């Protein structure tokens, strides 16, 4: 914050407290010329106004607030760039990466050993309390295989909460996905649905690229390949276009395989099961072949850590298993 705004905030804050004090003093003074308790000669609907002073309990409470206000501003940051006597902060304002955040927490933990005030950053305190409380739980579940945790109700509840916090934005709260984001409940997997594959996806992320083929095939060629691709899942198409598209499909077979059943090593989808990540209409498939697709699944290794990922993987694995 610049010096100008720091001074501006300080003047407004202290000025407001001073203004409240002066207003209270003005309200306590009897400027009506009428004795306290006497009739103010105002009445409404049979109710007569009396010249009564402010309630003492209310006045005392107001004074207490006026004393606490400046005291709070001295102890905690609130007056512009003033950091407060206690040095308390809600968060590290200059942190720009997860590693910097972790380093700051470790530094705070070391400094707390030599300080009677303890950790001064609220975010660090919350992380440290969470670690002390939940680390034993995560350690316990990390020692168990995913297949066992997929049948453990308590572990699944934790995994579900982590999923809702980190994955539902793309895959939906019910994990059924949406256009461009896979359905995690149907046992159709781009990179494999084994516990190990799911965990590897969460740890390292995935990056899928489908190139655009307009320059290679031309518009007519795109129509032909679209017809053949749709036929692989049993759709009714023009036979002439289909036969011509089958010849061109050799270019696509490098990833999707000669039978169109995909390749989980590459993340190439199965084109025969009528499950479409970006839509299975003729227009959607044409758009995919024409312009290509680029999908990114972020890595959660640094965000969650392997032990939490172990629980998320268990929850995701359980979604596609027969109950």
From TrEMBL:
Names of required cofactors: heme c
Residue intervals of the Cytochrome c domain: 154-233, 240-320
Keywords associated with the record: Cell inner membrane, Cell membrane, Electron transport, Heme, Hydrogen ion transport, Ion transport, Iron, Membrane, Metal-binding, Oxidoreductase, Repeat, Respiratory chain, Transmembrane, Transmembrane helix, Transport
Pfam families documented for this protein: Cytochrome_CBB3, FixP_N
Cofactor note: Binds 2 heme C groups per subunit.
Primary subcellular site in the record, as a coarse category: membrane
Positions of transmembrane segments: 6-24, 57-76
Pathway recorded for this protein: Energy metabolism; oxidative phosphorylation
Subunit structure and binding partners: Component of the cbb3-type cytochrome c oxidase.
Protein role: C-type cytochrome. Part of the cbb3-type cytochrome c oxidase complex.
Family designation: Belongs to the CcoP / FixP family.
Protein name: Cbb3-type cytochrome c oxidase subunit
Protein species of origin: Aliiglaciecola litoralis
Gene, per the UniProt record: ccoP
């Amino acid at each position: 914050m610049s010096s100008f705004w720091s001074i501006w905030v300080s003047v407004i804050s202290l000025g407001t407290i001073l203004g409240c004090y002066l207003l209270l003093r003005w309200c306590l003074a009897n400027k009506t010329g009428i004795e306290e308790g006497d009739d103010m000669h105002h009445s409404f609907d049979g109710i007569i106004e009396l010249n009564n002073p402010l309630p003492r309990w209310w006045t005392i409470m107001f004074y207490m607030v006026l004393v606490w206000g400046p005291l709070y501003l001295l102890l905690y940051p609130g007056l512009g760039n003033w950091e407060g006597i206690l040095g308390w902060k809600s968060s590290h304002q200059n942190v720009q990466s997860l590693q910097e955040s972790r380093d700051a927490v470790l530094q705070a933990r070391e400094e707390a050993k030599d300080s009677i005030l303890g950790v001064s950053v609220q975010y660090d305190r919350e992380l440290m309390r969470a670690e002390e409380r939940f680390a034993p739980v995560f350690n316990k579940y990390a020692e168990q295989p995913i297949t066992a945790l997929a049948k453990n109700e308590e572990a699944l509840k934790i995994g579900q909460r982590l999923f809702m916090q980190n994955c539902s934005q793309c895959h939906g709260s019910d994990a059924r996905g949406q256009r461009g984001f896979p359905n995690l409940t149907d046992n159709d997997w781009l990179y494999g649905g084994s516990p190990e594959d799911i965990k590897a996806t969460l740890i390292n992320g995935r990056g899928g690229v489908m190139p655009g083929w307009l320059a290679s095939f031309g518009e007519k060629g795109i129509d032909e390949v679209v017809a053949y691709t749709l036929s692989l899942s049993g759709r009714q198409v023009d036979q002439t276009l289909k036969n011509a598209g089958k010849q061109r499909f050799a270019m696509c077979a490098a990833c999707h395989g000669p039978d169109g059943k995909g390749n989980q090593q590459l993340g190439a989808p199965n084109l025969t099961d009528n499950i479409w990540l970006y839509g299975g209409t003729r227009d959607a498939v044409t758009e995919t072949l024409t312009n290509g697709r680029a999908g990114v699944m972020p890595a959660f290794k640094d965000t969650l850590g392997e032990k939490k990922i172990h629980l998320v993987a268990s929850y995701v694995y359980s979604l596609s298993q027969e109950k």
